[in-house]
Amino acid sequence: MPTRPFRVIRRRLLYRGRVVTMTHDTIRWRDGHTFQREVIHHPRSVVLLPILPDGRVVLIRQFRAAIERFIYEIPAGTSEPGESLAVCARRELAEEIGYAARRVTPLCRFFPAPGVSTEEMVLYRATGLTRLAAPPAKDQDELITPRIVTAAQALAMVRRGQIVDAKSMLGLLWGLGAVTWRPTGER
After folding, report:
1. Would you list the domain boundaries of the chain?
2. Alpha-carbon torsion angle 159, 163, 166, 171, nearest 10
3. pLDDT at 184
4. Cα gap 53→101, rounded to integer Å
5. 111-141 in b/e burial notation, b at 16+ Cβ within 10 A?
6. Which residues face 40 on adjacent strands?
7. Average pLDDT in the 17-25 region?
8. CA–CA dist 161, 104 (Å, integer)
9. CATH of 45-175, one of 3.90.79.10, 3.40.50.261, 3.30.1330.30, 3.40.50.300
10. Is 78:43 a contact under the CB 8 Å cutoff?
11. pLDDT tens digits for range 127-140
12. DSSP H helical ranges for the chain
C-alpha cells in the first residue's frame, strides 16, 4: 500500500461536543509544503430509503436548527460507539418513522462534506416495512413528522426544489432508479 503524500504534524482541539469534535490541523506534504485546515470529526452515519410494500416512500419533515427551517428528508442518523451500521439503520428507522424493516440493503457509501468533515454515510434501501406497535421515543431535540408519498411524488419534490438535502436527493434519485450507475469499488 502506498504511503500517504502528507502527514498531520499538529492537531489542536478546538471543540468537543456531544457528537462531533473540531480540530485545527497543520498538514505537511512530502515536498515540505504545509497548510492548515479546520476538520470536523464525525462518526459514520446511515441514510435510509424506506419503501413500503406498495412502493410508496416514507419521508420525514424535520426542523434543522443550522438552517433555521423545516425540510423534507429521508431518515438518517449517526452511529453510536461500537454500533454496526446495519443496527444503526434499523434503530433510526424505528426512532424516526416507527417502522421495522425485513431487509436493509446497502446501496452506496459517500462523504457528504469531505472539504470540512470526516463523516462517511452509507445509504440503505429499507424494504419489507411493518409499522411498530410501540415506536421508541424520539430524541427531545428532534421535531420530526413522517410523510408517506409515492415514488413519483418524491422525485417531483426533488425536481421542484422541495427536497434540498443532498443525502436525501442522492438516496431518492439513486434508490428509486431515477439515475443509475455502478459504484466504483471499495476502498
Report:
1. 6-41, 45-175
2. -80
3. 56
4. 11
5. ebeeeeebbbbbbbbbeebeeeeebeeeeee
6. 22, 117
7. 96
8. 28
9. 3.90.79.10
10. yes
11. 999 999 987 776 67
12. 85-97, 151-159, 166-175
Taking the C-alpha atoms of residue 74 and residue 147, their distance in angstroms, rounded to an integer, is 10
Q: Which amino acid is at 183?
A: P
Higher-scoring residue by pLDDT: 181, 112:
112
Region 49-61: mean pLDDT is: 97
- Per-residue confidence (pLDDT) for residue 54, from 0 to 100: 97
> What nine digits make up the cell of 3?
504511503
Cell of 87: 443496527
User: For 53, which DSSP code?
Assistant: T
- Backbone angle region of 54, left / alpha / beta, with phi > 0 → left and psi within -120 to 50 → alpha: alpha
What pTM value is reported for the model?
0.89
